[in-house]
Specification:
By secondary structure, the chain is an alpha/beta fold. It contains two helices and four strands; from the N terminus they run E-H-E-E-H-E.
């Protein structure tokens, strides 16, 4: 299982459900990196986008001069520290390929890979409406 959160204050927000397909393609490409570098299964990757309404304050900067994109990846336990570092570096390299020029702003990119501690899950199967019994 891989839960991925993309927090973005970067000037070009990614909207996976918007009219263009840029955000959706970003999500698919990010999932491919997590699968290839982290060993996650495609059907078990869930990606959540937050921002750009979130406000991040960077010491010495303003929202106009400092932007951020942060990706957090929470995985089922078992990946070695070296494999987590490799995944983090792979996702960071992927992010750098997606950046557009920002002449007026510095963009901080970060990736965190961690274990899901105490994780429990249940999937309720699809059902027709309420049934009288």
């Amino acid at each position: 299982m891989a839960y991925i959160t993309v927090t973005n204050t970067y000037p070009h927000p990614l909207d996976p459900w918007g009219s263009d397909s840029e955000g959706k393609q970003f999500a698919l490409d990010l999932q491919a990196v997590v699968v290839a570098a982290g060993g996650a299964r495609p059907g078990e990757c869930q990606i959540r986008f937050t921002g750009p309404d979130d406000v991040w304050l960077v010491a010495g900067g303003t929202p106009e001069t400092h932007q951020a994109m942060r990706i957090e990846i929470a995985l089922s336990p078992g990946l070695s520290p070296e494999a987590k570092q490799h995944l983090s570096e792979s996702v960071l390299a992927f992010l750098r390929t997606k950046l557009r020029p920002t002449p007026d702003a510095e963009v901080h990119l970060s990736v965190e890979v961690r274990d899901l501690d105490g994780y429990t899950s249940h999937i309720e199967p699809a059902q027709d409406g309420p049934q009288d019994r």
